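Continuing the batch. This is chain 6 of the set; chains 1 through 5 are on the previous pages. Same settings as before, nothing changed between runs. Recording input and output for traceability.
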Amino acid sequence: MPKILIVDDEIDICNALRIYLSAENYEIVEAHNGQEALDAVKAEGPDLILMDIMMPVMDGITATSRLREITNVPIILLTAKSEDSDKVLGLNIGADDYITKPFHPNELNARVRSQLRRYTQLGAQTVKDDVLRIGGVELNDIKKTVTVDNDPVSLTPMEYGILKLLMENPGRVFSSAAIYEAVWNDQSIGNESTVAVHIRHLREKIEINPSEPRYIKVVWGQGYKMEEMNAR
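Output for chain 6:
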């Protein structure tokens, strides 16, 4: 049974989330600020985190940044419509997705399922033995590791999924919508900016100079591609 950590200082929100998610047979753990979230992750080992942004003691953005130092489990931000800049910041520092309050239970459950499916697939041991190499980038899909010029790189599940998709298809251009649908396993309507943020974050990790990328290229007006260079 997947374990979900709910992090929100509003008790009513926590109660509603508990009701929605318990009905889907998830085990629920709660925390009410960012510091409690850090403690809960270490003690409980959740499979997914729902993280509010505005909280006392430690806000959700700071907590997400700290959590990315110790875990790659999916983090979905719970945001208000007025927190657009915080959404982008959260995605930049490692969050995988966001849901805007008020949210519909069906949307919540769909996003949770999508993130858990992606995380489970990336961690599964039944995936075929496959090592992809393009230039100095190597992705081992059995060990779930990525190295750049033999140095290990830590990626979130979404970053890993994007990189794997592009490396499996060197030279092929993928639109933001196509990347979102392939990696998030969800419809892309209105989520193209989410892909751009993750691409930027991925470049910061694998490119020597992210402003002049060697590997992940933009094809203006069309999308993104992985440059072909000794690909296999």
